[in-house]
Amino acid sequence: MITYLQTNTWIKLLFIICLYLTISCNSNRKNTEKQTGIPSPKNLTAYFDSLQHHGFYIPYHSDSTDREKVMHTVSLLQEFQTRKRKFYPAKEVQAALELMRNELGYINSHRGDDLTAEDNGFFFRFLEQAARLCPDLHLLADVTSADHKVGVINFQEWSINPLYSFLLYENGKGGWNVTPIDTVGNVKIEKIFKLDKNGQTYYLLSNNFLPITFTQFIFMTENGITSLFQGKQYEEALKAWYENRPEDYIITFNPQKVCWNFCHEVGEYYQPIENTKTLYLELNKEQSYFYVE
C-alpha cells in the first residue's frame, strides 16, 4: 500500500532529515568536510518564518515576547545583510542566543531526554546565519586563536555544566562557518593554540585545567577540506597518563613540545612532579596521535 503525504508534510520531513544529518555528522569525534559554506538566504525573515512553519520553533522559557525579540534580531541581521544597517547587531545577537540557550539548557537538564532537531534546529540555524554575517570574530567568540582565524563559542547549561561548544572558522566570504565540537554537554573549550609542523597549521582546541574537564580537539584545513578530530589513541593515552597522577598538581601545556605535565609551582616556574608521566601529541595531519612517556 502506498501512502501519499501532503506537500507540507514532505517539506517538514525534509527539514528534519537535513537538520538531523547536520547535527549528527557534526557531533562525531571526527568531522571532515569541504568548505562549501552554509545556506545564504536572501530574505532571513522569510527563511526563519519558514523554519517555524515547519515545526522548528524558537526555544524560549516563559516570556512570549522572547519570540518577538529573536525575530527582531533576525530583521536586524537582514538589514545588515542588505546594507540598510551599517553596524552588525552584536548586542542583540548575543541576547537572542542567550535567550535560546537558556531554554535549551533547561530542557537538557530537566527533561531527561536528548535534545531533538525540533528543539535546537532554530537555534543552530540562527547561529549559522549570525556567524555567516559576522564581520569580526570577537563579536561572537568566547575564545580566539592568536592569528584571529579560529574561535570557539561556549554555551552553558542552567548549571555550571557545558551545553554546547561551537567552532567558528573563516568561510572565505568575510564571515564564519560554524560546526559543533563533540556532543551535547561534553565540552567547554577555554584555549586555542596555533601549532605548525612540516608546513601544516593546526589549531588545538583545549581545556587543560583539570582531568574532569581535560579536552583536546584538533582542527586543520588542507586543500579546502576542513577536519575536526580528537586524534588517535586519545582515551588510551589519557588513561595511562592518569595512572600515577598525584593528589596536588597543576596541569601545564608546552606548545613547543606539544605535551602536558603534572607540575608544582616553584617560584615563578612550573616544575614537573617526579614519578609522573608526560602526555604527548604527535602532529601528523589526520593520523595525529597521543602517547605517554
pLDDT averaged over residues: 86
Class by SSE composition: alpha+beta
Strand order of the biggest β-sheet: 1-9-8-7-6
Biggest sheet details: 5 strands, antiparallel
Beta percentage is 25-35%
Strand element count: 14
How much helix is in the residues? 25-40%
C-alpha end-to-end distance? 64 Å
Shape: globular
What does this structure look like?
This is Lipoprotein. It comes from Butyricimonas virosa. The chain is α+β, with helices and mostly antiparallel strands. The protein has two domains: 1-136, no CATH class; 205-293, no CATH class. Helices cover 32% and strands 28% of the residues. The protein is built from six helices and 14 strands. It has helices at residues 7-26, 44-53, 65-81, 90-110, 117-133, 234-242, and strands at residues 30-34, 143-144, 150-156, 162-170, 176-180, 191-197, 200-207, 215-222, 225-229, 250-254, 259-266, 269-272, 279-282, 289-292. A five-stranded antiparallel β-sheet has the order 1-9-8-7-6, with no helix packed on it. The longest helix has 21 residues, at 90-110. The relative contact order is 0.11.
